[in-house]
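As a warm-up, study this chain.
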Amino acid sequence: MNLFGIIGRSTINFLEVVGRISIFTYKAVLSCALPPYYFKIFLKQIVEIGYYSLPVVGLTTLFSGMVLALQSHTGFTRFSAEGAVATVVALSLTRELGPVLAGLMVSGRIGASIAAEISTMRVTEQIDALKTLATDPFKYLIAPRIVASILCLPALVLVGDLIGIYGGYLVGVHKLGFNSTTYLDQTTIYLQPIDIISGLVKAAVFGFLIALMGCYHGYHSGRGAQGVGSATTNAVVSSSILILITNYILTELFFV
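Now compare it with the structure written out below.
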């Protein structure tokens, strides 16, 4: 009977968490759609999420594109298909690596930051103070971060795609000996608009998940320094897992 008790408690706890996240998501989406809007906080989050994340995303995609070119060339030489290196680099970055790597890097940087900031406000009772001042915490704290993240992630991914393709171009032309014009032609001929659009759609969804998980864990954090640390860790882990799961689902929808 102890086994059934453990299974029952685990199931109830899981359903409770799912229900709490669902209610939180509903309130967050509603807060994004309805006024009032806090444009000053929104612009601050645009700078924090978009501008300050550019170096991290740029370096990640640059070296990913360079490594991808090297590894692709190593594999394709066994089948005498070296000419496909440029196409593989472009398609891999725009479809998968660009959105996923950018999402994971921003999750580690922004998801943790959002969770730490909001959980600190919870611990110091600043959220309760907002309610006392008749200010909705969802509209003031959560909505600007979610909207900013949804808008910034596609822009970061687009820039990251360009940088990553350029990294593959550098390795392909200057190390592997490809002709510059041929490499660029192979990149542009086989790269379709759907490849870029699918990556940008993924990025927008990932941005929503990152901000949502950061806000959720920060808003429901425990008391004290341990609560802040747990909220930060849970935000990064949950958003990273959701990114990988959602990436598979979206890939199924777009390309299968």
